[in-house]
Amino acid sequence: MIRIAPLGRALAVAAAATLALAACGGGEDSAAPSASAPAPAASSAPAAAQGDGVLTIGTLLPQTGSLAFLGPPEFAGVKLAVKEINDAGGVLGKPVTEIDTDSGDTSTNIASQSVDKLLQQKADVVVGAASSSVSLSVIDKITGAGVVHFSPANTSDQFTTYDDKGLYFRTAPPDVLQGRVLGDLILADGNDTVGILALQDAYGTGLADNVQKAVEGGGGEVVEKVIYDPKAADYSADVAKIKEKNPKAVALIGFDETKKIVPELVKQGLTAKKVKYYFVDGNLSNYGTGKDGFPKGTLDGAKGTQPGAQVSDEFKEKLKSADPNLKDFNYGPESYDATILSALAAVAAKSDAGKDIAAHLKDVSTGGEKCKDFKSCADLLAAGKDIDYDGASGPIEFNDAGDPAEATIGVYEYGADNNNKNIAFNTGKIAG
């Protein structure tokens, strides 16, 4: 891996093993509120959880809704972690309990209902949601109950400064890093004028701002930034605004509506041969050329970015042991690490109470003796050693905001078949 250049410098690119990945909408679903809108009000939470001697992991992950494609690898990551923890003797002398629920998306009230269920069943840690906007809609309810809210995929910058009572953590990096990587990538490819099309929600507008900052900090110009309605029936007017400014590159920050926007770009003459397309984790999908894909060559040469380190073949096989039908691995490692870290923090705290777990999450991920699986880490803790867990998603060191202090962003490129392959992995400090 290579280190990410500081803001304003061209992104260095290094070859890495090719890896095909489908989209990872690590932000939020298309029905989410805008970044400027207040988070939906949460209902009153029950009394703070005190712990009952059994570590209970609740999942709040997408089984339905616009990010349902992210569910399988995330659920698999949690299930794999719970199995390994229990095979090693569990936590506090008892097996870890897992309760799975659906996060849905912000067009429904499924997430709130699921959180109520998890709290009623005494969840100590809630792993999820995948969508930043879904998490924003329930974070007060979860943290207000004294429960750890631990997302494997939230990327909105809003969580960094959110008043979460010290109970919110994530293994995915905030969008300041992905925005820096994408902006530097666009400039490194020789594009000094850029148009941005971004969906109107916390993820879309936040990432768009970070991309713009990186482009302009590096000497480029964002000639037009269009914030669109993800539920719009037609995107012709939005695309026309971009076309009018004649950019060399178009950064498309969105989700499923990308399937409608790309044909409109082509219709108005902004083909991949004329302008360079850049995608993000929310739409970095293998679209293909079949019935539900694009005509051959539509995305040829387009690039995109995706938070997350390279997933080893060995870990892919482990995830498949939890879900034999698994085809994509997006945020599976991050879900696995969130679960392992929660268990290790409970071991270190000698308590399954949410506040005790939160108080030890930074301790088990920073400094101390390196370890890479639950059993070896738990054995070190039992021997009175300080540990530093490095996980499947890469080295994890939480800062005071509960964000990873350092993270990896993958760079992908599309071929004529409209599928993408990895071309580089780049690591950088969030605050860099």
Descriptive account of the structure:
The protein is α/β, with parallel strands linked by helices. The protein is 32% helix and 19% strand. The protein has an 8-stranded mixed beta sheet, with helices on both faces. A 5-stranded parallel beta sheet has the order 3-2-4-5-6, with helices on both faces. The chain has a 3-stranded mixed beta sheet with strand order 12-13-14. Helix 1 (71-87) packs parallel to helix 9 (332-349), helix 4 (175-188) crosses helix 5 (202-217) and helix 9 (332-349) runs parallel beside helix 11. The protein is elongated.
Secondary structure elements and their pairing?
Blueprint: E1 2-3, E2 56-61, H1 71-87, E3 97-102, H2 110-120, E4 125-128, H3 132-144, E5 148-151, E6 168-170, H4 175-188, E7 193-199, H5 202-217, E8 221-228, H6 236-245, E9 249-253, H7 258-267, E10 276-279, E11 303-307, H8 313-322, H9 332-349, H10 354-365, E12 369-371, H11 374-382, E13 387-391, E14 394-395, E15 406-414, E16 420-429
Parallel strand pairs: 1-16, 2-3, 2-4, 4-5, 5-6, 7-8, 7-9, 9-10, 10-11, 12-13
Antiparallel strand pairs: 11-15, 13-14, 15-16
